[in-house]
Fold this sequence. Notes:
It contains 4 helices and 12 strands. It is mainly beta. The protein is globular. The model has no long low-confidence stretch (mean pLDDT about 90).
Amino acid sequence: MFSGIVEDAIEVTGLRPEGGNLHITLRCPFADELRIDQSIAHNGVCLTVVALPGDGTYTVTAIKETLDRSNLGALKVGDLVNVERSMKMDGRLDGHIVQGHVDTTALCESVEEADGSRYYKFRYDVDPALIRKGYVTVEKGSVTVNGVSLTVCDSERDSFRVAIIPYTYENTNFHRIEPGTRVNLEFDIIGKYLARLTELS
């Protein structure tokens, strides 16, 4: 379980395919605090630490299902990935409830300067089956973009905008997102449960 409050944007240092899997190695300032089997969100995707070589890096493995449903399969050495360790239950929930299970991806359609901040517009493929699963946004609701908990504005059927403040821009990989960049989306879990209950009733 995560909050969508990114701890750092860290660099991919190695990529090793193995069958349908991809082993991803990243350089991390808190690598010496990690342990094998620990869960970390990478651009919003929950992955398990599988190796700690002791050189300031760690490795996780993404399976084909994850690579197909997220932007992790397009990573290159040198890319920045937003990371967040799992949420502590004895603290404040500063973002919103994030599972680390990416629902789909979206393309950045535009980036607009807004008096010191920036508006990013994202568009995603949607059909009635996905809407029934709760793959929707609502005005002033929550959405997770590349692991970042954000508030929706200008919610449309297949697009939405978010406002990014300078701190988030500088301390996540949002400063590398531009029109045409593919990002990971996780829709609000509460909306997905409500959609499922409505479908079953």
